[in-house]
Structure formats: structure tokens, C-alpha cells
């Protein structure tokens, strides 16, 4: 074939893709600040690969399809990898994975199924760790696959990187390869702190890990919650390693490396597809981000026979999960007013499928965040939706900024009631100063009051509260208990029966507990735990309402800020009147037992898994907390006990693995009774 067979527009497009991808590589690998979301990058790579497949003349050694990563920065010393550190090819659906299996078997001339190792694909940074005579000598990034950066000082600060191998019998030279990543919880904490301190915010855990590792001051790295997971070896001298990949990893584990607990051996490609499906369901619940599954031919001799192409081995494939970040257009910004008057900017987006759902709104947090992002209306933005977390605008694709992009103007006056919007110095949040004059705040206060963890009024949904307030039937929380059947039945989509149900639910809700009532009042910074501590300390509402800020600070976990909000709340005449009105309407509770009486589970952490048959998860949690226990959401090594119900499978296994005591539902109920909890 000759050059002139390639149509000009195809050649130009290829060149354009080269430019886009090279720029993206630089931003991603060198600056740790990608502008494009990964899916967008992957689409462009795909497009270039397809062009190159059609017109092989377009393939050049410097094509982004032929290369791994990017050449390293100059601040760190360069390291040459004896065995190149490659990337992985990607599959995006079952067919592409089957196609991979077909290619493997064709090449091996194997009519039989090939065994694969299945590992979650951690989303972090590839690392090479060189051990000489069992001692960590050097840690290097992948770089462009041949040349990486020496980041030994930084990597040494990571707890899960062994500085010395366990066991005596170790190879003279052992190069371990793995991923350094930041667990989700650590990432959330880091960003939250950065947001408060006005420091750099990372787009996702991968970027945070990359940025943390490439610090010139290793004391900074030491502060970051990084972990290592080993997934392979490079150079090995003076030892024979097992002939199956999964066995090699188990050996690494004995030498002191963490390996992934979800790892599995699949006997054929169908089992791989099933594994991918299962992990896809588990993905949100894992404590770290994964962006797919890596399937590797498990036999090392077969891996050797298969070899590799320019940028990836032929014996491995990454089967990606649906993206958690996508690009879309910011159409407009609206300002919502919350229960405490906080004015939150909400981005209206051109609908985009991300993280498994179609997203058309995302939070922009506050005024500072808008400034930090430098975002304008009309911009192309990157939206991230991971798990249950509210979708967020994480960055702006500046290269796509339109000439007519408009600044976002933060309102001076509440968009709902027109009262001035005020900000307290040192606080990022701006608030409507209208208090309960503001119907937005009133609606939110009533919704909160009626919510499940508060007064738990069955059937009083958000829409109904909006209707009641908008129709002028409801002006305060206590007004709920004066609603009449006729008023409720007269609303749109309501009838006699549903009206009666609501009144019955309201009646039932009057029988409550002091902690729930305190939480329901919606005092700023008073969540469930604080409400419980306040109730336990003061025993009843009277003494609490009289308490000074100083008195309040004696309560467990109550600092000056919370003490101030609580005292301020109870000093308002309006609040006092509301409380009186609620009691007049029949809201009641029994006083709490006060004092530092022994709490059977004080200081222990419990995990509630799945749904118990007779208790809801939140009830179980309430009961445990009454006994002084902290309740955790997932199973970790420092958890003491797990309460298991139907559907608790994976957590249960994890608990057993960690040697944590496990109880079933009946034992749990007995246990609560023994400890004097009425069920
Ligand atoms: N947004 C951007 O502008 C931009 C630019 C460049 C690259 N990228 C993204 O980076 C990725 C491509 O980069 P890449 O070459 O690092 O490939 P990759 O991240 O898709 O796959 C290779 C990497 O997977 C990691 N990995 C995790 N678990 C593993 C396991 N169990 N076994 C083996 N490896 C494992 C290793 O670090 C390895 O280097 C793509 O997802 C692409 O979207 C994005
Ligand atoms: Zn208002």
C-alpha cells in the first residue's frame, strides 16, 4: 500500500487525534491534572486505533496508540526498567472480552478453555518496587514504560509497602509491581480538608494518588492516605517463582505484600464475564475505586508464549466498567435554599449518562467552589457520579470554552423569599437571612421534622409538604398537628383515605423519644449522634433549654460551635413557642436516663449488614447506639462484631476472614434483651 491511498481528511483527522491525545497524555501523566474525562480519552484512542487499522500507513512509532504513559518529569532521577512496564488493552463489552479469549486460544492453538486470573483494576498509579536481598532499594513510576521516575523516598512513607521482605528465603533481586491508590474514605477526607483550607482539590482518587506520590517533599506524601496492592512481578533473579500467576501473588503475599482479596481464578471466559458482572454490582461498596477488571492468562509459560505488542501484553485484558466521569454542557445554574437557609448553586446539565444513571443536575457546593472551578454558564464540564454520592461538577474543559460563556452571578437576595443573602466571614456557605419567613426554609424544616430518623411521619413526602406550604395550609412544624382531614383531602392527588392515613401517621408520630425530637428540631450542626448525647446528658428538654454555652460544652463531642448554635436556637422566642405548641399538640417522650452509667458497648464498633428480618437496619443501629456502640458501615480489621442478616454475604465472609465475631438475627435480639433494650 502506498501513502496516497489514505484520504486527506482521514490523514488530517489522525493528526488531529495525535495532537489531542498527546496534550491529554501530558496533562494526565505529567501534570496529574487531566482536562478530559477518561471515557473521552478512551473514545479518541479507539477512533485512532480504528483509523490505523483501516489505514496501516497511519501507524507511526510515536502514535499515542503505540505508546505507554508519557516521558517523566525532570525533578526526579530517571530509572530504566529492565522489564518494560506495559499498559493494558481495553474491552468495553462481553463480545470484546470473548474476542480477546478467541485471539488467545488461536495463538496458543488451544481448543480447550484457558484459565484466567481475575483481579479488580484498581484506579491508582503503577509502581515498580525493587528488592535486593530482601530490602527495598528503589521505587519507580511507570513513566513511558521504559523510563520512569525514582520516587523511593515518597514510597517509603507508605505503610503497606514492605521495607524488607518477610521470610529469609527471598530472591536476590525481586521487582514487585503493583498499584498505589487512595481509598475512597481517605480521598473524601483529603478533599474536604482542602476545601476548608482553600487548597488544591483533586478530581478523583487516582489523581489524588498521583499528585500525592509525585511530591518533592516526602513529608507531604507521608500525610496522604495511600496504599499498595501488588499484582505482579518484573525482574527476578536467584529464585524460581511459581508457574501460575495467582500462585506468584500468593507468594508475594507471604513475603509481606497486600494482594487483592477479590482475586479469583476463572476456568473459562464465561466465568470471567460472570465475575465482571458480580464485581460491577459490588463496585460501589468497595472501599477503593476500581475502573474495571483485569483478566490475565493464569499460566506463566503461556503468558511467555503469547508475549506482547507495542504497548500491552497479549495475555491480559482490562474489561472496563461504565464511566463515573463524563463530559457535558452546563446549561444554567439555579440556587436552592436549604433548611438552614444555605444557598446552594445547582448546575443544570445537558442530560448525560454517567455512573449508571442519567444525570441532569449536579451540585456546585458554594460560591468558593464556583470560583475555584472557574466555571461559567455554557461551559463544557466534567461531571462525576460515583456510587450514591450526589453528582458533582469536578472540572471545566477550558479548551472547549465558548465565546458567549456567561459568568455565574451569586444572588444577593434569596431567590425564594427575597431576604438578603448573608455570609459569615470564614464560612463558605451563604445563607438566606429570612429564617422561617422563607418558604423554602420552612419547607425544608418541615421535611426534616417529618423524616424517618426524626419524627418519622409515614406518608408525608416532599411533594406533599411543598403542596401544603404552597397552599398556605402549613406555616410551621407544629401546624402539622392542626391539619384537618378536609384540608388534606382537598389537595391535588389526595383523597379521603390518604388524608386519614396521614392524620393517623401524624398521631402515631407524637409518641417519640427525646433524641429524635431534638434531631427533628433541625438545630444547626445537631445530627442524630449529637442529639443523642444532648439527651443523655440533660435527661429532659427543660434543663437543656436552660443550658448555657459553657454547660453545653460539657456534653460529649460538643464543641464551642455546636454549643453556640444550640444555645442560640433555644433562646429564640419563636423556637420556644414552637416547642410549646408541639407539646400542646400532644408530642411526648420519656425522659432519658442521664449520667455516665456504664454503657455495655462503649467504644466498640459494630457493623450492621444486610437487612434483618424483624428489624430494619436503622432500628438495629438505634438499638446498638443506645448501648453506646459506634456503628460502622463496612467491615474493617478494627471492627469488633458483625450483625448478619439475609443478604449479608460478602461482608460476612470478610468478617470471618478478619476474625470478627458474627451474630445472626436471633442472637442479636437476645443480646439486646440481655442488655436491657426493649425491642
Ligand atoms: N483523561 C485523560 O486525559 C487521560 C489521558 C491519558 C490516559 N488516561 C486514562 O488512562 C488510562 C490509560 O492509561 P494506562 O496506560 O495507565 O492504562 P490503564 O490504566 O487502562 O491500564 C494499565 C494500568 O492498570 C493498572 N492496574 C490496576 N490493577 C491492575 C492489575 N490487577 N493488574 C495489572 N495492572 C493493573 C496498572 O497501573 C497499569 O499500568 C485510560 O483509562 C485512559 O482513559 C486519561
Ligand atoms: Zn429565603
TrEMBL record:
Active site per database record:
121 (n6-amp-lysine intermediate)
Q: Which PROSITE patterns match?
A: BRCT, DNA_LIGASE_N1, DNA_LIGASE_N2
Cofactor(s) of this protein: Mg(2+); Mn(2+)
In the UniProt record, which is one GO cellular component term?
cytosol
UniProt keyword annotation of Zinc present: yes
Gene from which this protein is expressed: ligA
In this chain the BRCT domain maps to 596-679
The protein's role, per its UniProt record: DNA ligase that catalyzes the formation of phosphodiester linkages between 5'-phosphoryl and 3'-hydroxyl groups in double-stranded DNA using NAD as a coenzyme and as the energy source for the reaction. It is essential for DNA replication and repair of damaged DNA.
Instruction: Please give a single GO biological process term from the UniProt record.
Output: DNA replication
* Cited SMART domains: BRCT, HhH1, LIGANc
Q: What is its EC number?
A: 6.5.1.2
Which residue stretches, if any, does this entry annotate as coiled coil?
none
**UniProt: NAD(+) binding residues:** 38-42, 87-88, 119, 142, 179, 296, 320
In its UniProt entry, what is this protein called? Answer: DNA ligase
Q: Which domain of life is it from?
A: Bacteria
In alphabetical order, the GO MF annotations are:
DNA binding; DNA ligase (NAD+) activity; metal ion binding
Q: Which UniProt keywords apply?
A: DNA damage, DNA repair, DNA replication, Ligase, Magnesium, Manganese, Metal-binding, NAD, Zinc
Amino acid at each position: 500500500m502506498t501513502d496516497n491511498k489514505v484520504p486527506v481528511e482521514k490523514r488530517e483527522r489522525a493528526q488531529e487525534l495525535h495532537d489531542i491525545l498527546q496534550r491529554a497524555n501530558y496533562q494526565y501523566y505529567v501534570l496529574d491534572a487531566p482536562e478530559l474525562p477518561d471515557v473521552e480519552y478512551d473514545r479518541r484512542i479507539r477512533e485512532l486505533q480504528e483509523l490505523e487499522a483501516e489505514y496501516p500507513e497511519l501507524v507511526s512509532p510515536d502514535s499515542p496508540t503505540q505508546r505507554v504513559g508519557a516521558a517523566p518529569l525532570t525533578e526526579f532521577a530517571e530509572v530504566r526498567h529492565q522489564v518494560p512496564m506495559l499498559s493494558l488493552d481495553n474491552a468495553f463489552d462481553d463480545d470484546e472480552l470473548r474476542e480477546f479469549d478467541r485471539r488467545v486460544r488461536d495463538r496458543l492453538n488451544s481448543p480447550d478453555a484457558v484459565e484466567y486470573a481475575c483481579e479488580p483494576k484498581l484506579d491508582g498509579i503503577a509502581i515498580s518496587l525493587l528488592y535486593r536481598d530482601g530490602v527495598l532499594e528503589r521505587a519507580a513510576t511507570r513513566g513511558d514504560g521504559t523510563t520512569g521516575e525514582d520516587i523511593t523516598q515518597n514510597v517509603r512513607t507508605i505503610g503497606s509497602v514492605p521495607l524488607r521482605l518477610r521470610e529469609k528465603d527471598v530472591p536476590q533481586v525481586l521487582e514487585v509491581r503493583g498499584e498505589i491508590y487512595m481509598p475512597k474514605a481517605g480521598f473524601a477526607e483529603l478533599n474536604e480538608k482542602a476545601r476548608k483550607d482553600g487548597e488544591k482539590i483533586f478530581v478523583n482518587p487516582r489523581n489524588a494518588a498521583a499528585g500525592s506520590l509525585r511530591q518533592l517533599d516526602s513529608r507531604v506524601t507521608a500525610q496522604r492516605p495511600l496504599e499498595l496492592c501488588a499484582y505482579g512481578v518484573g525482574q527476578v533473579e536467584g529464585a524460581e517463582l511459581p508457574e501460575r500467576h495467582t500462585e506468584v501473588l500468593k507468594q508475594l503475599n507471604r513475603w509481606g505484600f497486600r494482594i487483592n482479596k477479590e482475586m479469583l481464578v476463572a476456568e473459562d471466559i464465561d466465568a470471567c464475564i460472570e465475575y465482571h458482572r458480580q464485581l460491577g454490582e459490588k463496585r460501589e461498596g468497595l472501599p477503593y475505586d476500581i475502573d474495571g477488571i483485569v483478566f490475565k492468562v493464569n499460566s506463566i509459560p503461556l503468558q511467555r508464549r503469547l508475549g506482547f505488542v507495542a504497548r500491552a501484553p497479549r495475555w491480559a485484558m482490562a474489561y472496563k466498567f461504565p464511566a463515573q466521569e463524563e463530559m457535558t454542557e452546563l446549561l444554567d445554574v439555579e440556587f436552592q435554599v436549604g433548611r438552614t437557609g444555605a444557598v446552594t448553586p445547582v448546575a443544570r446539565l445537558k442530560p448525560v449518562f454517567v455512573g449508571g444513571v442519567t444525570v441532569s443536575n449536579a451540585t456546585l457546593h458554594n460560591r468558593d467552589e464556583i470560583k475555584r472551578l472557574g466555571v461559567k454558564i455554557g461551559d463544557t464540564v466534567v461531571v462525576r457520579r460515583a456510587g450514591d454520592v450526589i453528582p458533582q461538577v469536578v472540572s471545566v474543559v477550558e479548551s472547549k470554552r465558548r465565546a458567549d460563556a456567561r459568568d455565574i452571578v451569586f444572588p444577593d437576595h434569596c431567590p425564594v423569599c427575597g431576604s438578603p443573602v448573608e455570609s459569615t466571614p470564614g464560612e463558605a456557605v451563604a445563607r438566606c437571612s429570612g429564617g422561617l419567613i422563607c418558604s423554602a426554609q420552612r419547607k425544608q424544616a418541615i421535611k426534616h421534622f417529618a423524616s424517618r430518623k426524626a419524627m418519622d411521619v409515614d406518608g408525608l413526602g416532599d411533594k406533599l409538604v411543598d403542596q401544603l406550604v404552597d397552599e398556605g395550609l402549613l406555616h410551621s412544624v407544629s401546624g402539622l398537628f392542626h391539619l384537618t382531614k378536609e384540608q388534606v383531602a382537598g389537595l391535588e392527588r389526595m383523597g379521603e383515605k390518604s388524608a386519614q392515613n396521614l392524620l393517623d401517621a401524624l398521631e402515631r408520630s407524637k409518641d417519640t423519644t427525646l433524641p429524635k425530637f431534638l434531631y427533628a428540631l433541625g438545630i444547626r450542626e445537631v445530627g442524630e449522634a449529637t442529639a443523642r448525647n444532648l439527651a443523655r446528658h440533660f435527661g429532659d428538654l427543660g434543663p437543656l433549654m436552660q443550658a448555657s454555652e459553657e454547660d453545653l460544652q460539657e456534653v460529649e463531642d460538643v464543641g464551642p460551635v455546636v454549643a453556640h448554635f444550640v444555645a442560640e436556637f433555644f433562646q429564640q422566642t419563636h423556637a420556644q413557642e414552637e416547642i410549646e405548641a408541639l407539646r400542646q399538640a400532644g408530642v411526648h417522650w420519656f425522659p432519658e436516663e442521664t449520667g455516665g452509667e456504664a454503657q455495655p458497648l462503649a467504644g466498640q464498633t459494630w457493623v450492621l449488614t444486610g437487612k434483618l428480618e424483624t428489624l430494619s437496619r436503622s432500628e438495629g443501629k438505634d438499638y446498638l447506639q443506645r448501648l453506646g456502640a459506634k456503628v460502622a458501615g463496612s467491615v474493617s480489621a478494627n471492627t469488633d462484631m458483625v450483625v448478619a442478616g439475609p443478604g449479608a454475604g460478602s461482608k460476612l465472609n470478610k468478617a470471618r476472614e478478619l476474625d470478627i465475631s458474627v451474630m445472626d438475627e436471633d442472637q442479636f435480639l437476645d443480646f439486646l434483651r440481655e442488655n436491657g433494650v426493649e425491642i
